[in-house]
Amino acid sequence: MMNAINRAAVIGAGTMGAGIAAHLANAGLDVVLLDVSADLAAAGLERQKKTGLMHPSLASRIITGSVGDDLELLADADWIVEAVAERVEVKRQLYAAIETVRKPGAIVSSNTSSLPLAQLTETVSAGFAEHFLVTHFFNPPRQMQLLELVSGPATRSDVAETIRRFADIHLGKGVIDCKDRPGFIANRIGCFWLAAAQNEALALGLSVEEADAVLGAPFGIPRTAAFGLLDLIGIDLVPQILESLQKALPAGDPIQAYEAGPAIIGGMIAAGRTGRKGGGGFYRMGADRKTLEVFDLATGAYHPAARPVPDSLAASGGDPAALMAHPARAGRYAARVMLKTMAYAAHLVPEIADDPAAVDAAMRLGYAWKQGPFELIDRCGAQWVAEALREIGEPVPALLSLAIERSGFYRLDAGELAVLQPNGPYTPMPEPSGVLTIAGLARRGEPVRMSGDHAALWDFGDGVGGIELRTKMNVLNAGALDALDELVAIAAERFAGLVIGSDGANFSVGADLGHILALAEAGNWSAAGYLIARGQSVMSAIKYAPIPIVGAVAGFALGGGCELLLHCAAIQAHAESQIGLVEPRVGLVPGWGGCKEMLLRAASARQIMRGPSAPAIAVFDLIGSATQSRSAHDARNIGFLRPDDGITMNRTRLLADAKARALSLAEGYRPPQAPALALSGPSGASALRNMLEAAQAAGTASPHDRLIGDELIKVLTGGADGDPLREMSEETVMNLEREAFIALLSTRESQDRIRHMIGTGKPLRN
Q1: What average pLDDT does this structure show over 661-680?
Q2: Gap between the Cα atoms of 742 and 388, Å rounded
Q3: Where are any strands of DSSP class E within 452-532?
Q4: Is 32 helix (H, G, I), strand (E, B) or coil?
Q5: Which residues pair with residue 294 across a beta bridge?
Q6: What residues contact residue 336 under an 8 Å CB cut-off, 6+ apart?
């Protein structure tokens, strides 16, 4: 095995190169970023500070420079990534220069998306070729999970394994091994799909909105669908990509049937309508910057977006097979695009990948499809797809015929998912070492206990249990609270440690706002008070459980979801977690112990200025502004994560890492002792109210923000009984939380904020 990767270099500071450098810094590496000039490299880094880096401080890990003056900086790099222009001669010249400074054993890879590895390595030395491969990142490198890995015949197996493992664990990538073929996997199929989508829409006379409605949700494709994705990639760039691919492929390849740049696309490019980077393409914001406008393919003019629901889509109920079978124009469009894409994928295995699973994974990870083309075939039925292909005059691929004989591309074998191979047998697809998923557990057996439809308790193995919330977006309603209470008690009897987490996109978006609003509108304050007290009781049960409970957070952990995390013995966070006590956005304050827990953390944080008012001021700034982390690194800086809480880069490894953390805490575990809080009382409240008055005078706090702030101040300073010389119990502070929560909920302004958030998903400032 190669040595560990501790230092990296990236050459080329464009969108991709700078993004790769930023993500390597996110992974903890020291990085050199070079371009033809130091200014270009510095500008590339500057662009990444807002979105590419998980925290601005990580920029200090990146050194910038120029290829001409600073090439010697590559001498310490364990991995050198080339991300320069897609021209063979430019890359070959660069490789020759790298060879003069590359240390023995250093790995070099190209981020090429179109050039064959064999062509790139024609002029390199044998030693260079042994340490060379293609690592094709997808844009943006931080967010997109796919990394296509291409090894050459000379590439050492340990070199490929080093990059494969590093990219998986430290960069959070789903690494797919590809054949050295044009477009590799995802872009080979994705480009065909885009070409079909735009050309078939023009041929059938569909509007942009109709086409995207048809190709989006019914097939599990992101709402950008095809035309929205063309805007995102760049309308001027897509024809170049398609033309390059067409030139590299034989005349009989089905992609040759589609025009890379139809005349209307050429007209848009000439007019500067190149997509999002050009201020608009198929979609744009109107002059008022609020109204979404859509490009009319027939007239070339823009009109306000109408979001139509074609008859075929309405009649299908969102079922993809029913949609493609519908005789109306939109149904025919869906069939022409998606059936041909499924058939294209089937024609290409094993040319571009060893089996269908690699293709499906590439499309899920690289294009964010919920299901890849072979999974879609199984969903629709292989026999049905074959018959539908014949109806539109398309040949049935041999691999599809084999799937009909063998009853689909995927099946369960002894609790493990297995995939059909091109030569006939099914091969098991066990979860990799270090990966644990609820889906995998469900294939192998049943939960230990179900608590209604709200949550399930699973056996994670090795004496660790796992609670999976099952509400929509893991919202914490009354049923979910009861389920947590029940399952934590059962887990304490059965397991040595417990994880709360799931495969879902979000840990928990918080309390059930719809139910809370209904209670307020009915004036049922006793029920509202009980709900808050019940939540506090459950959070305390989690904090003081006799076994360690680890929160495995991914996606959003907001409001009550954040409070749940704060009461866990430890947190294992996916790197892209967004955590926050955001209750002021809906006119409330944290009511399930969030204020209390953050006060305890602030009191012990070294970076906060000492003094009786300091913790209250720090927490007031945090909660009053509804601060939400941009990443797990950011959450640690804010204080939602402790210094010893873990960060997992690869989402698929989160539950396994949380399990390992629970095991590490289990031996000799003792629940924490109930702490006391010394709160600043009236003097601290006075200082905070001065801050609040200044914010209102400056226009940064609205009238209702002032009221929310006043209630928050009461909680954080201990109310009328607050006294820095007389400690308060947790229970007393939680009583203050409950009183403040109900006081705010009873106001029309807070109810308006809740109603607006439910209706629009956006905060109301009143």
Answers
A1: 95
A2: 59
A3: 455-461, 464-469, 497-500
A4: strand
A5: 283, 303
A6: 196, 200, 204, 392
SS3 516: helix
* Residue pair 488/542 in contact by the 8 Å Cβ criterion: yes
CA–CA gap between residue 471 and residue 467 (Å, rounded): 12
Which helix or strand (DSSP H or E) is residue 47 part of?
A: helix 38-51
Instruction: Based on DSSP, count helices (H) and strands (E) in the chain, helices before strands.
Output: 33, 25
3-state SS track over 400-429: HHHHHHCCCCEEEECCEEEEECCCCCEEEC
Closest CA to 178 of 427, 400, 375, 365: 365
pLDDT on residue 26: 97
Name the strand (E) or helix (H) holding 395: none
**Contact between 645 and 572 (Cβ < 8 Å):** yes
Contact 52, 17 (CB under 8 A): no
Question: How far is the C-alpha of 385 from the C-alpha of 377, rounded, in Å?
Answer: 7
Omega within 30 of 0 (cis) for the link into 350: yes
Length of the chain: 766
178: burial class by Cβ within 10 Å (0-12, 13-18, 19+)?
A: buried
Cis-peptide into 140, omega within 30 deg: yes
Secondary structure E strands in 492-568? 497-500, 549-553, 556-558
Q: Which residues contact 6 (CB under 8 A, 6 or more apart)?
A: 29, 30, 78
Whole-angstrom distance, CA of residue 497 vs CA of residue 480: 20
CB-based burial of residue 60 (10 Å sphere; 0-12 exposed, 13-18 middle, 19+ buried)? Answer: exposed
Residue 369: both structure tokens together = 């499809």
Provide the residue type at 654 as one letter: L
**Which are the contacts of 190, defined by CB distance < 8 A and separation ≥ 6?**
363, 366, 367
Other Cβ atoms less than 10 A from the Cβ of 661: the count is 25
Q: pLDDT digit string (tens) for 212-261?
A: 999 999 999 999 999 999 999 999 999 999 999 999 999 999 999 999 99
Instruction: Give the span between the Cα atoms of 108 and 129, in whole angstroms.
Output: 9
Q: Is 294 exposed, middle or buried (0-12, 13-18, 19+ CB in 10 A)?
A: buried
Q: What share of the chain is helix, strand, coil (3-state, %, to 5)?
A: 50, 15, 35
What is the gyration radius of the CA atoms in the chain, in angstroms?
28
- Report the C-alpha gap between 397 and 508 in whole angstroms: 44
Q: What is d(CA 330, CA 221) in angstroms, rounded to the nearest whole number?
A: 16
A 10 A CB-CB count for 676 gives 13
Tell me the per-residue pLDDT of 287-322, one tens digit each, with 9 for 90 and over. 888 899 999 998 899 999 988 888 899 999 989 999
Q: How far apart are CA 744 and CA 606, in angstroms?
A: 33
Letter string b/e over residues 635-656, b meaning 16 or more CB atoms within 10 A of that residue's CB: bbbbbbbeeebbbbbbbbbbbb
Q: C-alpha dihedral over 148, 154, 157, 163, to 10 degrees?
A: -40
Q: Residue 557 and residue 542: Cα distance in Å, rounded?
A: 16
Q: Taken in order 223, 226, 227, 233, is the CA torsion positive or negative?
A: positive
Question: Can you read off the two tokens belonging to residue 708?
Answer: 């929310």
Q: What is the dihedral of CA 665, 669, 670, 675, to 10 degrees?
A: -10
Report which residue type is found at 304. Answer: P
State the CB neighbour count (10 A cutoff) for residue 759.
9
What backbone torsions phi and psi does residue 648 show, to the nearest 5 degrees? -110, 125
Phi, then psi, of 564 in degrees rounded to 5? -60, -45
The pLDDT of residue 415 is: 87
Q: CB neighbours (10 Å) of residue 3?
A: 9
Q: For the segment 328-366, what is each residue's pLDDT rounded down to a tens digit?
A: 999 999 999 999 999 999 999 999 999 999 999 999 999
How many Å apart are CA 387 and CA 321, to the nearest integer?
12
Residue type, 625: S
